[in-house]
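Morning, I've got a small favour to ask if you have a moment. Here's the protein in full, and shout if anything looks odd to you:
***
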Amino acid sequence: MFEDIRGDIEAVVERDPAARSKLEVLLCYPGVHARIVHRLAHLLWNRGWTVTARFIAHIGRWLTGIEIHPAAVIGKRLLIDHGMGVVIGETAVIGDDVTLYQQVTLGGVSLEPGKRHPTIEDDVVIGAGAAVLGPFTVGKGARIGSNAVVLKDVPAGVTVVGIPARPLGPQALPKEPYFPAYGTGPGAEIDPMARTVDRLARQVEELTARLEELESGAKRCGSAEDRRAS
């Protein structure tokens, strides 16, 4: 367990520029505290002490603002940055080196027993306020932008944004290595749906201007014919 806690602390130091020391991380980061509580609750859950596990998880939620069901399976070096409002459901599975920001929900949309929550593979980054809802897979290295609502599989390495979430178009590669905080890189393009709406709006404006031009020309022709007739 101590080795896993050390890995959690190192993940914060590597991915959060505000972290100045490992001691600061251990004392002041609720995401690290939530992982410590979850490890204990998960151990008790697997041994059949389900009520005790839920109670310990509830205490962890009260202390950190992060709700993790004790049955959730979580890999190594998870970073829950800021953390307030994060919810991780019962059948969620999270791989290694995943990053979650505040108010992320890994939730379910079914009342049926069995797998209801998403599987998050290694190296995924999920931005603030995103909701990943359902028993599907977010592939390795995928990025989910802030406030996105993800309702189906996300292929490995793909960035999705919007409601419902859609893949971004081709993105220029950064000149230097960087960590895609909040699930998007610097200069990332806007929601593809918003791009489509903007394009349609421009086309409507062009067609409206053309129609007004044709109507104006028709009126001038009609006035000229009236003058000749008189």
